Amino acid sequence: MFTDSILENESIWIGGVDVATGPEREWVWFSTGEGITSFNWAPNEPNNEHGEEYFMSILWNGSSYSWHDNPSGYSRAFFCETSR
């Protein structure tokens, strides 16, 4: 799998964003606005640390992955979905 060598221990944006304006989280896919219904959050995530984490990413540790919420302002690798 390409993630073993290229993306290990890198946070990768997967296109999920939190669009809620209150304390409840509402995660949608950025490209479509469709609600996300299945999650694989890491323990204690999403935590919206410092009230600034609105972007969903995955972290690959070499054998498994987990989802995290992250702040904006950081360059990250990303996955893109395309049609063939």
Automatic annotation (TrEMBL):
Residues 1-81 form the C-type lectin domain. It holds the Pfam family Lectin_C. Transmembrane segments: none annotated. InterPro entries: C-type_lectin-like, C-type_lectin-like/link_sf, CTDL_fold. This is C-type lectin-like. It comes from Priapulus caudatus (Priapulid worm). The gene is LOC106817921.
